[in-house]
């Protein structure tokens, strides 16, 4: 009774990813509570577009995810059902997209990758997109999530490496000679993520120059100063590299749910700003009438 009460009290507030609140009594942060929310859909549609562009070239790609999560997330789990954020995001998008004659290719690809019983998260989307000869390396600090991810990737038939441990430090230890895409998706609960992200970007700029970097971040709800700092630090750490910023906001009560998030893209593929400018308006409109979006070069060489 006591733990049930605790869960009921903290869970809605914990929907504001980026606050120091705990989403569960067991883990610091469990993405199961937030699967398929509007901000998750934005993140995973942009990632789908990035993966499409990064797998167009024949040369091998190394994909690294610093905060991989579970890969596949059952919709009917107690955690996912607590907030049911997917009803406002993934489910709404799917229902509205079904009534359309023409759908943006990246939204269609995101929806096609999804499964009826399980939400397909970033690691699973990436594992499905990688080709023979590509490599996937997934870091996850929580052992339970890492075990779930290993199981998910094996069920998908993916040959990827799951490393249990800190994704910032682990990524720095990799020695890679191929093109790369590094996806950084932290829970923003430690207070030090901005510094850690900037340090990782600086490291990659020096030691893995062929890596593109994508950093998801929460927006609004008092996060503006932190967003500004993140943008500033990433720009400072990446020298002359191009940096693109994309974001999407859906209307609604921001005190109850995270409604807005962004993605910083270091060395995005050529013309990716145009890709996003065709993807995001359709995504915003499908998710919620009155949704807004933006694409902005923070630096362009
Ligand atoms: C936002 S969730 C990841 C969601 C996942 N990328 C997706 O979109 O499906 C963040 C994950 O990072 C894990 N985590 C937290 N700190 C970490 C760290 N320093 N290194 C690796 N994983 C970490 C958490 O256990 C959690 O599973």
What does this structure look like?
The protein is of the alpha/beta class and 301 residues long. It has one domain: 3-Layer(aba) Sandwich (Rossmann fold), CATH 3.40.50.150. It has eleven helices and ten strands. Strand 6, helix 9 and strand 7 form a beta-alpha-beta unit. Helix 2 crosses helix 5 and helix 2 packs antiparallel against helix 11. The N and C termini lie far apart (58 Å). S-adenosylmethionine (SAM) binds next to strand 4 and helix 8. One of its GO terms (biological process) is rRNA base methylation. One of its GO terms (molecular function) is 23S rRNA (adenine(2030)-N(6))-methyltransferase activity. InterPro entries: RlmJ (IPR007473), SAM-dependent_MTases_sf (IPR029063).
Assign the structural class, choosing from mainly alpha, mainly beta, alpha/beta, alpha+beta, or little secondary structure.
alpha/beta
Write down the overall mean pLDDT.
Answer: 90
> What is the radius of gyration computed over CA atoms, rounded to a whole number of angstroms?
18 Å
Poorly predicted spans: 1-26
Q: From the 3D structure, determine the CATH topology.
A: Rossmann fold
Strand order of the largest sheet: 5-4-1-6-7-9-8-10
Q: Major β-sheet, in short?
A: 8 strands, mixed
Overall outline = globular
Overall number of domains: 1
CATH class: Alpha Beta
What is the CATH architecture assignment?
3-Layer(aba) Sandwich
Beta-strand share of residues: 15-25%
Bound molecules: S-adenosylmethionine
Relevant CATH superfamily: Vaccinia Virus protein VP39
GO cellular component, one term: cytosol
GO molecular function: 23S rRNA (adenine(2030)-N(6))-methyltransferase activity
Keywords: Signal
Pfam family, one: RsmJ
């Amino acid at each position: 009774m006591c733990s049930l009460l605790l869960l009921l009290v903290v869970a809605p507030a914990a929907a504001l990813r980026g606050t120091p609140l705990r989403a569960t009594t067991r883990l610091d942060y469990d993405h199961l509570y937030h699967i398929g929310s509007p901000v998750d859909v934005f993140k995973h549609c942009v990632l789908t577009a990035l993966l499409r562009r990064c797998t167009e070239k024949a040369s091998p790609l190394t994909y690294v995810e610093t905060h991989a999560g579970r890969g596949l997330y059952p919709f009917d789990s107690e955690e996912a059902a607590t907030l049911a954020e997917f009803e406002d995001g993934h489910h709404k998008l799917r229902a509205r997209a079904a009534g359309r004659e023409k759908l943006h290719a990246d939204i269609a690809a995101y929806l096609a990758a999804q499964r009826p019983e399980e939400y397909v998260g970033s690691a699973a989307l990436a594992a499905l997109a990688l080709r023979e000869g590509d490599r996937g390396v997934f870091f996850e600090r929580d052992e339970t999530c890492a075990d779930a991810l290993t199981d998910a990737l094996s069920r998908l038939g993916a040959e990827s490496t799951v490393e249990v441990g800190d994704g910032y430090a682990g990524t720095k230890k990799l020695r890679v000679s191929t093109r790369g895409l590094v996806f950084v998706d932290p829970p923003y609960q430690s207070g030090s993520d901005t510094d850690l992200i900037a340090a990782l970007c600086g490291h990659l700029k020096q030691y893995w120059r062929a890596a593109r970097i994508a950093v998801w971040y929460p927006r609004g709800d008092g996060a503006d100063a932190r967003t500004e700092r993140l943008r500033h630090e990433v720009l400072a750490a990446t020298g002359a590299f191009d940096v693109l910023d994309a974001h999407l906001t859906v209307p609604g009560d921001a005190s109850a749910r995270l409604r807005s998030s962004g993605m910083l893209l270091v060395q995005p593929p050529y013309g990716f700003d145009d890709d996003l400018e065709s993807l995001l308006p359709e995504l915003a409109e499908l998710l919620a009438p009155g949704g807004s979006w933006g694409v902005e070069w923070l630096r362009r060489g």
